[in-house]
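We modelled the chain as a single entity of 236 amino acids. Its sequence is:
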Amino acid sequence: MEIMQAFISWLTAVEWRYVLGQQPLEVIATLAGVFGLILLAKEKRSGWLLGMVWSSISAYLAFFSWSLLSDAIMYLVYIPIQIYCWRAWICSKDPNTNLVLVPSWLSRPRQYLLGASVILCIAVWAVIVSTLASQFSWIPEPSMLVRDSASTVLNFFAQFLMARKRMENWVIWVLVNVLGIHIYLAKGSPIYALQYGLFLLLGLYGWWQWHKHRRQAEFDSRLSSSSNSTLAAQTA
């Protein structure tokens, strides 16, 4: 009973207006993002549609409220990328088997190439954003240039990896979400920091769901091969 009373006292003491953000748009975007990621973790295409809502609102807030230029560009570019991902999941088939794609890991050489490409793109993106801000007065001076650029580039890579159902996307999302928590706490947006904290947990959930699907697909494939071999031997 004392624990319950203490919990109720804590709830009433929290400044919920601050925790939930100053703008209702932040709450709407967060809900769309969280439920969208849950659907994507379950490999449901409708998650991409909620992602488009999240991206649109986030782009507006990043540019006009937080002066996070890289993030604003990232959220805007997300919209056509998410349309592509939505279409890719509708039409996703393995070119070798013509079966619906299941989650899989890249080969080790491709993982090394992925890592090198990410580092190079972060450096190039930071230079581009900084140059644009110095050339055009209407573009706000980028805040947290390197961290913002890293978050943006990692987001793009994760999106395309997710479109092809590559397991590496969840590893990259962990990095993105840790960066997001830090950036948005520093920018005074606790609801977006909380959002990225939820994304971090949901990313781990998504990895587990995809991992189970991948293992099940491997088991079914081995079982099917074994059954076919047995049938062929009996026929012979």
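As a brief sanity check on the tokenised model: The CA atoms of residues 94 and 101 lie 5 Å apart. Residues 23-202 form one domain.
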